[in-house]
Amino acid sequence: MSLKVYNSLTHRKEAFTPLNPPAVKMYVCGVTVYDDCHIGHARAAVTFDLIYRYLLHKGYSVTFARNFTDIDDKIIKRASELGIPWHEVASRYIAAFERDMGPLGLKKPTVEPKATDHIPEMITLIEKLFAKGLAYERDGDVFFSVRRLPHYGKLSHKKIEDLEAGARVEVMEKKEDPLDFALWKKSKPGEPEWQSHWGPGRPGWHIECSAMSQKYLGESFDLHGGGRDLIFPHHENEIAQSEGATGKPFVKYWLHNGFVNIDAEKMSKSVGNFRKLREVLENYDGETVRTFLLSAHYRSPIDYNEEAMKETEEALDRFYLAVKRLKDFPQGDGGDQKELHLLSSFEEAMEDDFNATQFFGNLFDWVRQVNKYLDGLEKKKKGFSHPVKSQILQELQQISQVLGIFGQDPHRYFEQRSSRQMTKSGLDPSEIERLIEERQKARGSKDWSGADRIRKELEDKGIILKDRPDGSTEWQAKS
Questions:
Q1: Residue 323: enclosing H or E segment and its boundaries?
Q2: pTM
Q3: Is the dihedral of CA 425, 428, 429, 432 positive or negative?
Q4: CA distances (Å), 68 to each of 75, 153, 198, in order?
Q5: Angle of helix 119-131 relative to helix 236-246, nearest 10 degrees?
Q6: Which residues contact residue 479 at a Cβ distance below 8 angstroms, ignoring those fewer than 6 apart?
Q7: Cα dist. 129→115, 124, 142, 201 in Å?
Q8: CA-to-CA distance for 402 and 365, rounded, in angstroms?
Q9: C-alpha span between 359 and 391 (Å, rounded)
């Protein structure tokens, strides 16, 4: 098998061949820290965490850089709104990022640079652009001259003559051309500033990522990622200023994840369907959220809604029930069952542009096969081969280490599920047992309506009762 990735630069799948194997150098644009993370940020983080993990699984030595943009117009505006210094805003929301992303099980990147720690590198890069005739200064502001770079637009596949000033391209009288973008911004009174050859100011957004990626990964590296919304102008401008300064190809493979829609509409603060990650995590645990975010191919849009989240919970329950049954099944000599091995189908799916979604389909076929096979063994009163079981469980562990899900002990998983449901219902185990005992008494006296009332009361609070043939009653939390 050979890994193929979809390269946004060429609009096709290509064999993944690193510049200097087995080393892989990878940069992903992180968040601008002026607010809490939303579910779209979570999708980007989970997508590239999956890619990072799979590259490590394949034996590559990966240097993974994911930055924090900690100086930006939005940060300055939020500081003014809150009446606190800009750097306190940045620190607050870096901490919020760590808090909210924590439950998603992200693997720590090799390095997490902050923009404000790399101002000298940005100034040096801008100086190189001046030397190449690609930058100009106007009254303390510095701009990149887009039309002086012949290949501008090669990532977004836009032609210069067709371009108009984009959403993040400021139209200013100082510019020679409305398409030119800021490399350095002259500071206004009260704004944060750093000294430069062009006077006090701060870096533009695009130059930050070029400088940080080059410092940690070199002038040319393997893989650059981010959301689709970053293709233009941010990533296009990164290419322009990086290749303009060095004369070398900047990135070999560009990967971009799709958007998160909310109830089939594009997520937007203006229409009121914005979902902060911490609010989502108040209702769903981190594994459920991560599983949902991996349930569609990373390049496709994904629709967040309550039905989809409930379906994800139910799918996790089915998986863990199968694993619990497999682990607890008596040992014996039931024979090999090749259809229960998963690792090869997982790797086959992942080799096709990290297609975890394809594997999910195979996984739930596997759940049905496990239950069918174990049903057959029960009928024959046979046990399950311990060596086969061990190998299957080891394969599941390897898959879990890449996906970042499916790795819990199933008994612990269901304990936590019950605990969360009881917290939502306001019940504790002793109260549930008391109501079950009360129901047993009602059944003993043939008060069927009273017994049904208690069952319904518990069901409404997410507790499902199961009456056993011996007359006892078990309960579990509804997913």
A1: helix 306-328
A2: 0.89
A3: negative
A4: 12, 26, 25
A5: 70
A6: 310, 313, 314, 316, 317, 417
A7: 19, 9, 10, 18
A8: 20
A9: 19
Structure tokens at 185: 């911004």
- Tell me, what's the pLDDT at 172? 59
The total number of residues shown for the chain amounts to 479
Cα 106 to Cα 98: distance, rounded to the nearest angstrom: 10
Judge whether 35 and 93 are in contact, CB under 8 Å: yes
CB 413 within 8 A of CB 320: yes
User: What are 446's two structure tokens?
Assistant: 């043939």
pLDDT of residue 162: 73
Residues 192, 272: contact at Cβ < 8 Å? Answer: no
Give the rounded distance of the alpha carbon of 363 from its chain centre.
21
Give every residue of the chain whose pLDDT is below 70, as ranges: 164-172, 270-272, 334-336, 338, 424-425, 427, 468-470, 477-479
Rounded distance between C-alpha atoms, residue 465 and residue 474, angstroms: 6
Task: Pick the closest to residue 385 from 339, 341, 337, 320 (CA basis).
Answer: 337
- Measured in whole angstroms, the distance separating CA 277 from the mean position of its chain's CA atoms is 11
